[in-house]
Amino acid sequence: MSAGLRIAADKETGVAVVTLDRPARLNAVDLPTAAELTSCWRELRYDDSVRAVVLTGAGERAFCTGLDRDAHVPQPNSPYMMDDPLLRIGPKANDLWKPVIAAVRGMACGGAFYLLGESEFVVADTTAVFFDPHTTYGMVSAYESAYMAHRMPYGEAARMALMGTAERISARRAYEAGLVSELTDPGGALEAALRCAAVVASYPQEAVQGTVRALWAAKEAALARSFAQAPGLIALGNLPAERQAELFARRRTAGFRLR
Known about the structure:
This protein is α/β, with parallel strands linked by helices. It is 38% helix and 18% strand.
């Protein structure tokens, strides 16, 4: 893997750690890293020594802040054909049915929800904050909101999507809302996630992977319907790219509300 992604596997425990490794960019996903994530999940399908995965981000400031703003993604001139570079960055999108546990420290926002939405559960430390900036910058939160509506009560997911950058959900509130399953002291999320992964990796894998598949089956039909509508909603609702850039350039660096 390149500098955008690191994979370390412990053959004794059967746990692999996949780390987004772009801390200078707050672990935002550029196009090469998106391709690496797709390749990573597909390779792990064939590695029988890996029985569980922990997904995390490098550094202390962010788990992931979504698609890198400098990534240039050409789009067809049609609302029925839209290229989203993040649609294939998650494990389920690549047919991986080994359990994935996310360990979150710092910011998790926007496109990070593609990864959190396809993880089995989320462990976070008390520095974690969650928010969705789309509406602030004139963009429709379509895929992200669909994922979060299956991880949180509807009102919480709607509030996060609609409030944009004006409000961030604290780790404590995310835990209370069910997005986070375990809350740790600062810096403790990775260790806690590794403990959980080691336990799951020690169980018979046919049963574990069958359970992962059954859990995903409970929501994949609804997600598929939401995703089918997403391209049209984005084409209709997104401001032109240059207008989005203007709003982003005027973004506030402070003044958000933490709850």
